[in-house]
Specification:
Elements (H helix, E strand, L loop, with lengths): L3 H13 L16 H29 L3 E5 L5 H12 L3 E4 L8 H9 L3 E4 L8 H13 L2 E5 L2 E3 L4 E5 L7 H4 L3 E6 L4 E2 L2 H14 L9 E4 L4 E3 L5 E3 L6 E7 L6
Parallel strand pairs: 1-12, 2-3, 2-4, 4-7, 5-8, 7-12
Antiparallel strand pairs: 5-6, 6-9, 10-11
Helix pairs in contact: 2-7, 3-4
Length: 248
Protein backbone atom coordinates (compact mmCIF):
# COMPACT_ATOMS: atom_id res chain seq x y z
CA UNK A 1 0.00 0.00 0.00
CA UNK A 2 1.36 3.42 -1.00
CA UNK A 3 1.62 5.94 1.82
CA UNK A 4 0.74 9.58 1.36
CA UNK A 5 4.41 10.58 1.60
CA UNK A 6 5.40 8.03 -1.06
CA UNK A 7 2.56 9.21 -3.28
CA UNK A 8 3.65 12.86 -3.24
CA UNK A 9 7.32 11.90 -3.49
CA UNK A 10 6.56 10.10 -6.73
CA UNK A 11 4.76 13.14 -8.13
CA UNK A 12 7.68 15.42 -7.17
CA UNK A 13 10.10 12.98 -8.79
CA UNK A 14 8.13 12.92 -12.03
CA UNK A 15 7.89 16.71 -12.13
CA UNK A 16 11.66 17.04 -11.72
CA UNK A 17 12.06 15.09 -14.96
CA UNK A 18 10.12 17.69 -16.91
CA UNK A 19 11.88 20.67 -18.51
CA UNK A 20 11.11 24.12 -17.16
CA UNK A 21 8.30 26.01 -18.86
CA UNK A 22 9.36 28.61 -21.41
CA UNK A 23 8.65 32.28 -20.86
CA UNK A 24 5.40 33.36 -22.51
CA UNK A 25 4.35 36.74 -23.86
CA UNK A 26 1.37 38.12 -25.73
CA UNK A 27 1.89 38.69 -29.45
CA UNK A 28 0.52 41.83 -31.05
CA UNK A 29 -2.43 41.29 -33.38
CA UNK A 30 -1.39 41.81 -37.01
CA UNK A 31 -2.77 44.96 -38.62
CA UNK A 32 -2.93 43.46 -42.11
CA UNK A 33 -3.10 39.67 -41.59
CA UNK A 34 -3.95 38.76 -45.20
CA UNK A 35 -0.92 40.66 -46.47
CA UNK A 36 1.28 39.08 -43.83
CA UNK A 37 -0.05 35.61 -44.61
CA UNK A 38 0.81 36.11 -48.28
CA UNK A 39 4.32 37.21 -47.29
CA UNK A 40 4.75 34.09 -45.14
CA UNK A 41 3.69 31.92 -48.07
CA UNK A 42 6.21 33.58 -50.39
CA UNK A 43 9.04 33.18 -47.89
CA UNK A 44 8.22 29.54 -47.20
CA UNK A 45 8.09 28.77 -50.91
CA UNK A 46 11.87 29.16 -50.83
CA UNK A 47 12.67 27.35 -47.58
CA UNK A 48 9.93 24.73 -47.29
CA UNK A 49 12.38 21.76 -47.29
CA UNK A 50 13.98 23.03 -44.06
CA UNK A 51 10.53 23.71 -42.60
CA UNK A 52 9.37 20.22 -43.50
CA UNK A 53 12.40 18.63 -41.85
CA UNK A 54 11.78 20.66 -38.70
CA UNK A 55 8.15 19.51 -38.73
CA UNK A 56 9.17 15.87 -39.18
CA UNK A 57 11.56 16.00 -36.22
CA UNK A 58 9.00 17.57 -33.89
CA UNK A 59 6.14 15.39 -35.14
CA UNK A 60 8.12 12.22 -34.48
CA UNK A 61 9.20 13.61 -31.10
CA UNK A 62 5.55 13.69 -30.02
CA UNK A 63 5.08 10.08 -31.26
CA UNK A 64 3.61 10.92 -34.66
CA UNK A 65 4.47 8.69 -37.63
CA UNK A 66 5.73 10.62 -40.66
CA UNK A 67 5.54 9.42 -44.27
CA UNK A 68 6.78 11.22 -47.37
CA UNK A 69 5.63 10.24 -50.85
CA UNK A 70 6.62 11.53 -54.27
CA UNK A 71 3.17 11.92 -55.82
CA UNK A 72 -0.53 11.49 -55.23
CA UNK A 73 -0.31 8.04 -56.85
CA UNK A 74 1.80 6.91 -53.88
CA UNK A 75 -0.72 7.96 -51.22
CA UNK A 76 -3.14 5.02 -51.61
CA UNK A 77 -0.36 2.38 -51.32
CA UNK A 78 0.92 4.13 -48.17
CA UNK A 79 -2.53 4.18 -46.55
CA UNK A 80 -3.08 0.57 -47.64
CA UNK A 81 0.16 -0.45 -45.93
CA UNK A 82 -0.86 1.34 -42.73
CA UNK A 83 -4.23 -0.43 -42.85
CA UNK A 84 -2.75 -3.88 -43.46
CA UNK A 85 -0.20 -3.53 -40.65
CA UNK A 86 -3.10 -2.84 -38.25
CA UNK A 87 -5.65 -5.23 -39.70
CA UNK A 88 -7.86 -2.24 -40.51
CA UNK A 89 -10.83 -2.73 -42.82
CA UNK A 90 -12.87 0.48 -42.64
CA UNK A 91 -11.79 4.04 -43.28
CA UNK A 92 -13.83 7.20 -42.85
CA UNK A 93 -12.70 10.21 -44.82
CA UNK A 94 -13.41 13.89 -45.16
CA UNK A 95 -15.18 14.74 -48.41
CA UNK A 96 -12.86 14.38 -51.41
CA UNK A 97 -12.82 18.14 -52.02
CA UNK A 98 -11.09 18.62 -48.64
CA UNK A 99 -8.52 15.85 -49.06
CA UNK A 100 -7.18 15.00 -52.51
CA UNK A 101 -10.03 14.58 -54.96
CA UNK A 102 -12.18 11.60 -55.95
CA UNK A 103 -9.33 9.44 -57.17
CA UNK A 104 -7.97 8.59 -53.73
CA UNK A 105 -11.22 7.08 -52.44
CA UNK A 106 -11.53 4.97 -55.58
CA UNK A 107 -7.93 3.79 -55.27
CA UNK A 108 -8.43 2.80 -51.63
CA UNK A 109 -11.67 0.98 -52.42
CA UNK A 110 -9.89 -0.92 -55.20
CA UNK A 111 -7.38 -2.11 -52.59
CA UNK A 112 -10.12 -3.64 -50.48
CA UNK A 113 -10.72 -0.95 -47.87
CA UNK A 114 -14.26 -0.04 -46.95
CA UNK A 115 -14.22 3.71 -47.56
CA UNK A 116 -16.92 5.97 -46.10
CA UNK A 117 -16.62 9.50 -47.42
CA UNK A 118 -18.38 12.29 -45.58
CA UNK A 119 -21.01 14.18 -47.63
CA UNK A 120 -20.11 17.61 -48.99
CA UNK A 121 -22.90 19.39 -47.13
CA UNK A 122 -24.37 19.25 -43.65
CA UNK A 123 -26.46 16.22 -42.70
CA UNK A 124 -30.13 16.76 -43.50
CA UNK A 125 -31.51 15.69 -40.12
CA UNK A 126 -30.71 14.14 -36.78
CA UNK A 127 -31.10 10.58 -38.04
CA UNK A 128 -28.54 11.15 -40.79
CA UNK A 129 -26.11 12.78 -38.35
CA UNK A 130 -26.47 9.79 -36.04
CA UNK A 131 -25.80 7.40 -38.94
CA UNK A 132 -22.63 9.25 -39.92
CA UNK A 133 -21.42 9.34 -36.31
CA UNK A 134 -21.95 5.58 -36.02
CA UNK A 135 -19.91 5.00 -39.17
CA UNK A 136 -17.11 7.19 -37.85
CA UNK A 137 -17.15 5.55 -34.41
CA UNK A 138 -16.67 2.05 -35.83
CA UNK A 139 -14.07 2.99 -38.46
CA UNK A 140 -10.50 1.76 -37.96
CA UNK A 141 -8.91 4.72 -39.76
CA UNK A 142 -9.82 8.39 -40.11
CA UNK A 143 -8.47 10.30 -43.12
CA UNK A 144 -8.32 14.10 -43.20
CA UNK A 145 -6.53 16.90 -44.93
CA UNK A 146 -4.45 19.49 -43.05
CA UNK A 147 -4.96 23.25 -43.10
CA UNK A 148 -1.68 24.13 -41.37
CA UNK A 149 1.31 22.02 -40.28
CA UNK A 150 3.35 23.79 -37.60
CA UNK A 151 7.07 22.99 -37.74
CA UNK A 152 8.14 24.22 -34.30
CA UNK A 153 5.68 21.94 -32.45
CA UNK A 154 4.84 19.17 -34.94
CA UNK A 155 1.20 20.25 -34.76
CA UNK A 156 -1.55 19.64 -37.32
CA UNK A 157 -4.23 22.35 -37.54
CA UNK A 158 -7.62 21.22 -38.88
CA UNK A 159 -10.60 23.51 -39.46
CA UNK A 160 -13.99 21.82 -39.15
CA UNK A 161 -16.90 22.40 -41.50
CA UNK A 162 -19.22 20.79 -44.01
CA UNK A 163 -17.60 17.64 -45.40
CA UNK A 164 -14.85 17.78 -42.79
CA UNK A 165 -16.27 16.92 -39.35
CA UNK A 166 -13.87 16.94 -36.41
CA UNK A 167 -15.01 13.42 -35.46
CA UNK A 168 -12.99 12.03 -38.40
CA UNK A 169 -9.76 12.89 -36.60
CA UNK A 170 -11.02 12.08 -33.09
CA UNK A 171 -13.06 8.85 -33.06
CA UNK A 172 -11.09 6.28 -35.13
CA UNK A 173 -8.10 4.79 -33.26
CA UNK A 174 -5.74 5.76 -36.10
CA UNK A 175 -5.77 9.23 -37.69
CA UNK A 176 -4.10 9.74 -41.08
CA UNK A 177 -3.54 13.34 -42.20
CA UNK A 178 -2.57 14.19 -45.77
CA UNK A 179 -0.83 17.46 -46.67
CA UNK A 180 1.63 19.18 -48.99
CA UNK A 181 3.97 22.15 -48.78
CA UNK A 182 1.14 24.70 -48.96
CA UNK A 183 0.12 23.75 -45.39
CA UNK A 184 3.56 24.31 -43.87
CA UNK A 185 4.21 27.14 -41.44
CA UNK A 186 7.18 27.59 -39.13
CA UNK A 187 5.71 28.79 -35.85
CA UNK A 188 2.66 29.37 -33.70
CA UNK A 189 2.86 33.16 -34.24
CA UNK A 190 2.51 32.44 -37.98
CA UNK A 191 -0.54 30.32 -37.21
CA UNK A 192 -1.97 33.34 -35.43
CA UNK A 193 -1.53 35.41 -38.58
CA UNK A 194 -3.50 32.89 -40.62
CA UNK A 195 -6.25 32.63 -38.04
CA UNK A 196 -6.57 36.42 -38.05
CA UNK A 197 -6.61 36.49 -41.85
CA UNK A 198 -9.30 33.81 -42.02
CA UNK A 199 -11.42 35.57 -39.40
CA UNK A 200 -11.00 39.12 -40.65
CA UNK A 201 -11.30 38.40 -44.37
CA UNK A 202 -14.04 35.81 -43.94
CA UNK A 203 -12.24 33.23 -46.08
CA UNK A 204 -11.27 30.31 -43.81
CA UNK A 205 -10.68 26.82 -45.29
CA UNK A 206 -14.13 25.89 -43.92
CA UNK A 207 -16.94 27.51 -41.96
CA UNK A 208 -17.17 25.17 -38.99
CA UNK A 209 -17.09 26.24 -35.36
CA UNK A 210 -13.94 24.36 -34.35
CA UNK A 211 -10.22 24.64 -35.10
CA UNK A 212 -8.38 21.55 -33.84
CA UNK A 213 -4.69 21.65 -32.90
CA UNK A 214 -3.41 18.06 -32.93
CA UNK A 215 0.06 17.43 -31.50
CA UNK A 216 0.62 13.69 -31.68
CA UNK A 217 -1.65 10.89 -30.41
CA UNK A 218 -4.15 11.45 -27.60
CA UNK A 219 -2.47 11.45 -24.19
CA UNK A 220 -4.04 11.32 -20.75
CA UNK A 221 -2.22 11.27 -17.41
CA UNK A 222 -3.63 10.63 -13.94
CA UNK A 223 -2.54 12.49 -10.81
CA UNK A 224 0.54 10.26 -10.56
CA UNK A 225 1.49 11.25 -14.13
CA UNK A 226 1.01 7.74 -15.53
CA UNK A 227 0.61 8.33 -19.27
CA UNK A 228 -2.04 6.52 -21.32
CA UNK A 229 -2.65 6.94 -25.05
CA UNK A 230 -5.92 6.81 -26.91
CA UNK A 231 -8.39 7.60 -24.12
CA UNK A 232 -9.78 10.82 -25.61
CA UNK A 233 -8.66 10.44 -29.22
CA UNK A 234 -6.62 8.27 -31.57
CA UNK A 235 -3.75 6.11 -30.35
CA UNK A 236 -1.83 6.80 -33.54
CA UNK A 237 -1.43 9.86 -35.77
CA UNK A 238 0.18 9.48 -39.19
CA UNK A 239 1.11 12.46 -41.40
CA UNK A 240 1.60 11.81 -45.11
CA UNK A 241 3.48 14.57 -46.92
CA UNK A 242 2.97 14.58 -50.69
CA UNK A 243 5.82 16.22 -52.63
CA UNK A 244 4.05 16.93 -55.89
CA UNK A 245 1.19 19.06 -54.57
CA UNK A 246 -2.24 17.61 -53.82
CA UNK A 247 -3.96 19.75 -56.43
CA UNK A 248 -1.32 19.18 -59.08
Amino acid sequence: MTTRAEFFARIRGELRKKPALFAASTAARPEHPATQADAIRRELAERWPETLEAFRLEFERVAGVFHRVASLDDVAPTIDRIARERGARELVSWHAASVAGDGLSRALTARGLGVHEMPAGEAADGAERARLRAITARADLGLTGVDLAVAETGTLVLVSGAGRPRSTSLLPPCHIALFDRTALVESLPQVGVFLEAWHRDGAPPADGAVVNFITGPSRTADIELTLTRGVHGPKEVHAIFEDGGLRG
